[in-house]
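User: what does the whole thing look like in 3D?
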Amino acid sequence: MMTEGWYPVFLREMLLFRRKLLKLSYLFSAMIVPIIYLVTFGLGLGRTVQLHGTDYLSYLIPGLVVMSSMNNSYTWVASALSLNRLYFKTFQVFVQAPISPSSIMIGEVLAGMVKGLFASLLLIVTSFLMPSSPAINAIFVGTLFLNCFLFASLGVIIGMTAKSHEDTSTYNNFFILPMAFFSGTFFPVNRMPELLRVVINVLPLTHANILIRKTQMDVEGFVSFLILLGYAAAFFWYGSRLIRNYNE
Amino acid sequence: MIEIVGLTKSYGAITAVNNLSLEINRGEVFGLLGPNGAGKTTTIKMLTTLSKPDRGTCRIDGFDVVKNSYEIKKRIGIVPQENNLDRELTAYENLLIYAMLHQVADLEQKIAVSLLMVGLSDRKDSVASGFSGGMQRRLLLARALLHEPSVLFLDEPSIGLDPLIRRQMWDVIRKTKIEGRTVVITTHYIEEAETLCDRVGILSKGKLIVLDSPQALKASVGEYVVEHINAEGKLIQHICRNREEAHVIARGRDNGVTIRKTNLEDVFIKLTGERIE
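Assistant: Here's the predicted 3D structure for the full assembly of 525 residues, as structure tokens:
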């Protein structure tokens, strides 16, 4: 009973995801928000703005990629898990199967990562049509994977603790959405008031934004990497614990 | 064999299952009968590891459901009261995921046999959301038997089914018993309990009030029931020990008097003063 049971959990999500992909509405919903930001802030507002000596679009695109990876990894897992647990009761099929809680966690998180990475990939491909496209290096790819893992794990925590499906939207509005705007996606954190910066520097997306823009690893990047790793480990551990202690 | 000792579960101030103790023999079809809210589903949830008891123990084939949940999960199949199929997946995909979760060997053949058993072979590539209620229940049953569990739990298996499909469901359950499996059924259908079960435990407000074979339970209250409508239009029932006593009571009543054999609901009414609904 180790972790080999993750595959059917993952496969189930992928079979459902494949069906969603066949519906254009899914692709549209995954793409629309980041593309609106890209066009509005990047091509519109951003034409006259320079940040760190480069054009705004070069700054914005990596931020939109981590934001999109966060939104898609987190939302799909949190939403699906709360629905499956509270309404469709399909989550109970996993809990009553002879597989470990970690297997369920791994399967759910990997599925969330695939969704987050897929949405990020769509955005990266779109960004190549823009005047500036992101420099994709090992740090960029590593940050993306780590960010997806972290937020998919957080999605499990929210999906397991939500008392109703509406709760997931509440968490989204009070935690995910402000984080998307204040954590360095659209502008550097050092432009925020000092008091607010203390809070912002604790948030994981801030460090994903710092890390993904690094062309070479430095001390700041390494600290952000460790913080993201710490969050990822903590969220994964707590999500697995919630599954282990599941009790109706 | 299933051994339940002092099983208790509360939700806030409500005690859903109260100090339940009973034994279910290997190869037996055992029914938990009672009205909605009697504690049947909570009992099944505890026996199937979904819910942890506040007090008491349950053991299946010698394994404790809390301490040895992995061993329990390998041995049990479950048809839950609420349809928990993946509605957007096909019948085949639903069974495939379940078979992989339960490490079923030779799964393609097992899936084919299971679909054939419940008459869904020709719909294996149809998504479950397009199935009728009866087809979905049959698919749930096929799924529960896929890994050949030694104990099958059925929580209200024929709820919402038409009589024909219900009987088909019963045939599969009988076949399961013949194959040597223990079957635990919760139901509030009197006919289902009487037709399928070797023994029945009647639950009321979380407590086991009586346990025996359907025949013995009915015989314990009397063989016949006389029913008539009184002057206020209320249904009056008299449980009688034998036919002669029933005829004596029926004699001299107004039109509309009926004499019938007792059923398990009469047992429940006699013991609790309430009806199973």
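In plain terms: Chain A has a mean pLDDT of 90. Residues 6-244 of chain A form one domain.
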